Each structure stands twice: as structure tokens, then as C-alpha cells.
Amino acid sequence: MVNNETNVKRFIWTMAVVIPVAVALLFLIPPVESLSESTRQSLYVLPRLNAIFNGTAFFCLIGALIAIRNKKIKVHRAFTTTALGLSVLFLVSYVAFHLTTESTRFGGEGLIRNVYFFILVSHILLSTGIIPLVLFTYARGLGMQVEKHRRLAKITWPIWLYVTATGVIVYLMISPYYPH
Fold first, then answer.
1. Cβ(90)–Cβ(23) under 8 Å?
2. Are 84 and 138 a contacting pair, CB within 8 Å?
3. Radius of gyration of the chain (CA)
4. pLDDT by 10s per residue, the chain, length 180
5. Which of 14, 4, 10, 28 lies closest to 103 in space, CA to CA?
6. Domains of the chain by range and CATH?
7. How much is the pTM?
8. Is the Cβ–Cβ distance between 27 and 98 less than 8 Å?
9. Residue from 116, 124, 101, 153 nearest 19 by CA
């Protein structure tokens, strides 16, 4: 058991470092240039798909909270597992999009620009920090470490909910500036 728990912790901390580093590197390397313009243009469906992943994960997290408050553990686990799966799909799609396309600059001005960047920066910072929180919370839930799971979930859940919601908001704010 201890060895398995050590392996889980090692995996979680590895992911907590590897994922943010990989995402940060996306902005340092140029996008793949061998794609045709029509292929590159068709990839702009991915941000919309990412917003759908985030929005659906948001509602799964709400469902998970309602389920656990009604003591429906299997339903809670299903919602949480789905939210985690959607977050993984988001990450894969996000990486694919940013490996193949140029970054889009936000074109808004004035107060809306400040609001956008506040939401974007808080989203990025919290999405980095949420990785180990989600994974530890999920692992403790699967391992039926109920008290540890519950204590950590009280921190994890609102941050994860915020990250999924702001992912959708960032998409809605930046999408008018995508090339057409």
C-alpha cells in the first residue's frame, strides 16, 4: 500500500510539473508550418471544442456537488470522473491547437481589456495550481480516504469550478479576434 501511495504521489507531482512546463513551451516554439492554410483554418474549431469541454466539466462539477450532498457516491464519482476526463480532453486539444496555430491577440480596448487579462491571468495561474489538487483529491476519493478527500475537495472544488468557468469566458472574449 505504501509503495502504491508513493507511486501515486510521484505521478501527481510529475504531472504537476510536466503539464505546465509543456504548456509554457507551446508559446516559445513556433507553430507547425507544414500545414496548409485551409487545414490551419479548420483547427479554429478546437477552441470552441475546448470551451465545450470546460463548460461541460463545469456542469459535471455542479452535478458532483449535488450528488455528494445527497449521499449518492457512485453518481458523484461518475460526475467527477467525467469532469476529469473532459479536462484531459481539453488539455490534449489545447496543446494540439497551440502547436499548429499562431497565438491570437485580444483586440479589446479600455476596461474590457483589463477585465480580459485579469480573467486570463487568474485562469492560467489557477489552472496550473489545480493540477495536483484535482489529482490528489481524485486519488483520495478513489482510495476511499473520505476525510482527506473531503478536506481537500473543499479547496479543490471551487478552484476547479472557477478554472472551468473562466476557460469558457476567455474563449467567448477572445473568439471574435480569431482569423476568419
1. no
2. yes
3. 18
4. 457 888 888 999 998 888 888 888 877 777 777 777 888 788 899 999 999 999 999 999 999 999 999 999 999 999 999 999 999 999 999 998 988 888 899 999 999 999 999 999 999 999 999 999 999 999 999 999 999 999 999 999 999 999 999 999 999 999 999 987
5. 28
6. 14-23+38-177 (1.20.120.80)
7. 0.89
8. yes
9. 124
d(CA 82, CA 139): 14
Neighbours of 108 (CB within 10 A): 15
- Between helix 2-26 and helix 73-100 the angle, nearest 10°, is 30
In one-letter notation, the amino acid at residue 88 is V
Residue 106 CA to residue 139 CA, distance in Å, equals: 38
- Phi-psi sector, 148: left (phi>0), alpha (psi -120 to 50), beta: alpha
3-state secondary structure of 29: coil
* Rounded Cα–Cα distance for residues 109 and 124 (Å): 21
CA 101 to chain CA centroid, nearest Å: 19
